[in-house]
Amino acid sequence: MDAGQGLSTSEVQSIREALAAGRKPRVVFTAAAGQIAGQVGQVIELTDPEVSDEFVVVRFGRDELPFSPADLAVAPKGAGRRVAEPKPEPEPETPPAVAAPEFVLDTPRVPAQRQEEPKVEQTEKPPARRAVKAVKPKGPAGLTVTLAYADGEWTVAAQQGSKALAKPYVVKPAEALKMVALVDVPGVQEAVEQILGTERAEAEQQAEKLRAELAEIEARLAELREAR
């Protein structure tokens, strides 16, 4: 498998079966993964590919990050494993040599010079750079348009996220019926027509009442004019 081609569909299915069996397959990062190309990690989970293209979760050191199949390839056998180094055999101990007695006449003793142990400077290794994943830009907040009916009035309001774009304002019943006609939801248009029918009947009754009252007032006015 060429480490620059990414995982194929059959290899992703093999990884899914291995995870179901309790194994954690090893993968190697391709050049598409950026600065960590050539490193070896373990697949620990496969998420839903319909939600994101980066659905292969890989453990790399102490990090667990999602990658796309194009960022990974099946690791060759033996990749990422440490080979045990053979321990050196101990050398046979030699008995210390016994010095012969030395006869010295009037020989002054010279103190042995103290040998200083060589200083070993310890250099701190720079911390390993953590793999940086590109953050996808956040999409705009959702837009909500509300058509409401209360106390004999139709109102429309608009809100985006937590921000109110338009406060509830009154619209005509005919405009409300046109808005509802754009929404093909069973039962909604019937409910609106029922509300408008009830309002229409109440308005006609009130108009008839006002006409009767107006007729009485006109008749009374005619009588007063004749009495002049």
Explain briefly what this protein structure is.
With 228 residues, this protein is an alpha+beta fold.
What does this structure look like?
The chain is of the alpha+beta class. It has helices spanning 9-20, 173-181, 188-226; strands at 26-29, 40-46, 56-60, 63-67, 72-74, 143-150, 153-160, 163-171. The strands form 2 sheets. It has a 5-stranded antiparallel sheet. Strand 6 (143-150) and strand 7 (153-160) form a beta hairpin. Helix 2 (173-181) runs antiparallel to helix 3. The longest helix is centred in the last third of the chain and has 39 residues, at 188-226. The N and C termini lie far apart (116 Å). The model is unreliable at 82-87 (pLDDT under 50).
Distance between the termini: 116 Å
Give the class from helix and strand content and strand pairing: alpha+beta
- The total count of helices amounts to 3
Shape: elongated
The percentage of residues in β strands lies in 15-25%
Biggest pleated-sheet summary: 5 strands, antiparallel
Name the descriptors:
single chain; 228 residues; alpha+beta; five-stranded antiparallel β-sheet; three-stranded antiparallel β-sheet; 21% strand
Secondary-structure map with pairings?
Blueprint: H1 9-20, E1 26-29, E2 40-46, E3 56-60, E4 63-67, E5 72-74, E6 143-150, E7 153-160, E8 163-171, H2 173-181, H3 188-226
Antiparallel strand pairs: 1-2, 1-5, 2-3, 3-4, 6-7, 7-8
Helix pairs in contact: 2-3
